[in-house]
Write a structure and sequence with these properties.
The complex is a heterodimer of chains A (71) and B (357). Chain A has 71 residues and is α+β, with helices and mostly antiparallel strands. Chain A has two helices and four strands. Helices cover 36% and strands 14% of the residues of chain B. Classes of the chains: A alpha+beta (71), B alpha/beta (357).
């Protein structure tokens, strides 16, 4: 099954990070979701969020991110 | 309004002694030190004394020190003047935009540049330089307070030092060739730059010129004198102020980490200028936090995209991998009363909690 997709295009910081964190809070350990975001701050801030919260994020393609819940 | 911080330009409040001097000078008017009248000769003596005093504090000789009416011009003078077509300009990702502009200009002219990556604690990636290369070396970062007190060994390039934020806090590295200070770093006035050019520098004036002048002559004599007076007082007060600032800085770091949480704090107390504190809160819109704090009487700055006109996050925070959203910057002042700090922290806690809910 494809991971759930959050479409945050058109939304500015910190909304893409807030929406991601809300979704991750409902997930089981090891589950993944994807995020679409065209906010220029998202790539850096999603990586910072992952570092601060102990989760994992990666850039899959332009403006598309994969997030794995680890904590 | 409680002056927790100064403004977006990283400036400290003007030192009261410098402010008083400026008032006296502007009341009196001032003679041109280049002329031969008695007043002019007095002005020339005062200017020379100011140069000697500044040079002594900053670690160069008076003959190596020049005043600039436009401080940012010093980046062009200091870096471009050392570059040759064969030079690679080496700089870091947290340098000021003026350095990056010089790098872009050098590349447009056919030269090369190398941007060094910077890590989470402000550490610069390893690099190698040839004798013809030019190293732009920032002694302190104005946004995060990160200090660079050690220059890497084994480098052979020509060193330009950006001391605009460090002031007299970090000594020039051995072998420096050019340097730039802004008087605002030590409580001096805005609008005056101090440019250093080592006597042994192989430097060509990059600005069109007809005579042997090394810098454009236009600067304000009162601002130059006030910058010297401010530095004299700053140096006299620095050890007492540093202890107070470290205490305030540590108190804020501890409170934010334990009582607010989910905050990216730039650097550590030991590797940053204790006057500067950069805090990035998760799930916070910086513009709203700034507005809320302002309404409560606290003026702070931000490097977040949502608080700037061009919608671009701080290149410094992004380069270091720090959270760029929800960022506030504090410029701490040793004269802040402990009750004001406590009130600020309580307000910050309440506002962050409200915005996160």
């Amino acid at each position: 099954m494809d991971p759930k997709l959050i479409d945050a295009r058109g939304k500015r910081c910190p909304l893409p990070i807030i929406e991601t964190a809300r979704e991750v809070a409902k997930m089981e350990l090891g589950q993944t979701i994807e995020l679409l975001s065209d906010d220029p701050a998202t790539q850096n801030d999603l990586a910072a969020w992952a570092r601060m919260t102990g989760n994992q994020s990666e850039l899959v393609e332009v403006q598309r991110f994969k997030i794995t819940k680890l904590t | 309004m409680v002056p927790i911080t100064a403004n977006f330009q990283r400036e400290r409040p003007l030192h009261p002694e410098a402010a008083a001097l400026l008032e006296r000078i502007f009341e009196r008017g001032w003679a041109d030190p280049a002329k031969l009248h008695l007043e002019s000769r007095r002005a020339a003596i005062l200017l020379q004394e100011a140069k000697e005093s500044l040079a002594g504090h900053l670690g160069l000789t008076p003959d190596e020190l020049y005043f600039l009416g436009e401080p940012a011009l010093g980046f062009h003078l200091g870096i471009t003047g050392l570059l040759s077509p064969e030079s690679t300009l080496i700089y870091s990702g947290i340098d000021r935009q003026e350095v990056m502009a010089v790098a872009a200009s050098h590349e447009q002219a056919g030269g090369h540049s190398q941007k060094l990556r910077v890590g989470l604690l402000g550490e610069v990636e390893a690099f190698q330089s040839a004798p013809t290369d030019v190293l732009a070396w920032q002694l302190a970062n104005g946004e995060t307070g990160i200090l660079r007190t050690q220059f890497p060994r084994g480098q052979y390039g020509q060193i330009f030092c950006d001391a605009t934020s460090s002031g007299a806090l970090v000594a020039l590295p051995e072998g420096w060739k050019s340097a730039l200070w802004e008087a605002t770093a030590w409580g001096g006035p805005a609008g005056i730059g101090i440019f250093g050019l080592a006597e042994n520098a192989i430097w060509r004036n990059p600005i069109p010129h007809l005579d042997g002048r090394r810098v454009p002559g236009g600067f304000s004599l009162p601002l130059a004198l006030a910058s010297s007076v401010a530095l004299d007082h700053h140096m006299a007060e620095i050890s007492t102020a540093a202890k107070k600032l470290q205490g305030i800085n540590q108190e804020i770091r501890n409170f934010v980490a334990t009582e607010i949480g989910e905050c990216d704090i730039a650097g550590t107390l030991s590797n940053t200028n204790p006057e500067i504190l950069s805090l990035s809160f998760l799930y916070i819109d910086a513009e709203r936090l700034l507005t809320e704090l302002d309404a409560a009487g606290f003026a702070v700055d931000s490097g977040s995209a949502c608080s700037s006109m061009n919608l671009t996050p701080s290149h410094v925070l992004a380069e270091m991998g720090l959270l760029t959203g929800g960022n506030i910057r504090l410029r701490l002042n040793a004269d802040i009363e402990p009750t004001a700090i406590a009130e600020f922290l309580k307000t910050l806690q309440v506002k962050v909690a409200a915005l996160r809910s």
